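Example with several molecule types.
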Amino acid sequence: MIVRISGENQYRLSDADAEQLNQLEKAVVEVVEGGQKDGFDTAFRTLLEYVRTHGTPLGSDELEASNVILPPPDLSFEEAGREFSGEGLIPE
Amino acid sequence: MAGLTGRMSTVVKAKVSKLLDRAEDPAETLDYSYQKQVEQLQNVKKGIADVVTAKKRLQMQESSLQQNVVKLDTQARQALSAGKEDLARMALERKNVAQTELQSLDGQVTELEQQQERLTESEQKLRAKIEAFRTKKEVIKAQYSAAEAQVRISEAATGVGEQMADVGLAMQRAVDKTENMKARADAVSELEAAGTFDDITALGSGEDDIDRQLKQLSSQPAVDDELAKMRKEIGIGDAPASASAGQLPAQSQPQGGGGSEGPPAHGEQAPAEGGQT
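Resulting structure tokens for the full complex:
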């Protein structure tokens, strides 16, 4: 599977990584929904770090669509909250 | 995966397929989307130029504030030498505000610099993808039947489209940030226009509304400290100096230190410690 970290790169991960990725994302969703600002940074960073360490970056000439697109690393807690309120991160 | 991520990829795919639907013939589709990509690359360049402009504006403001800090410092010294402590205090309060503003501007300039770097990097990545697409489109045109080509085009275009959306997102965030900074920069300009950092001596000693606000803004202890330091530097004793109230360490008194050669005694030497808070 291919995962993009917005503003950074696309990574190729094995399908076996999907489950772990799912767990990590759930953790992020939980802290955001629970309004835990402190927990957010750690949870979000853990998720991104997992992708970086378990994936291989795609070459600049590879034209692949991502299965998953993660928000940019400098996403603020407020922005994360907005994402859930339905105002997508990618401008229309 | 829903949550944070599902939505974004859906938006990208929808955009790309909308783009692809416009043309019927695969070859035409390819050329059309390539042309679109090149167009959008131009927009990215414009966006970067905007960030640079915003940065330059903040830098100009920085240097003008820096001049004001120097000016106000000089004025405070002059006022103090002339025995006008109120005026000196006022100048220092304003200097304090200018310095605080300067610090925040500094942070903003750094932030914009990082943003500019990131955008430039994104632009290069996008350029590489578009180049790859250009190569690929010729291959697709030459090798595949119409039906098959459509599938491959869609894949390739989605890859580029995603990169495009990614740059678009980075750009949008940069624009949002510079908008905030612009608003703040405008506020500082207004302060400047209102004469906040202007020649303090021209104002006379009357306290106006700006001064009262500034007093609240600037932290009083910092101003007090600086005033004391300045007094020492200029050579005006700190406390009502020569009072010789035995407070001075009677050790080896450096000759002349007792204030015998004080400044040309301006009327009253303002002992008022808490006179006008």
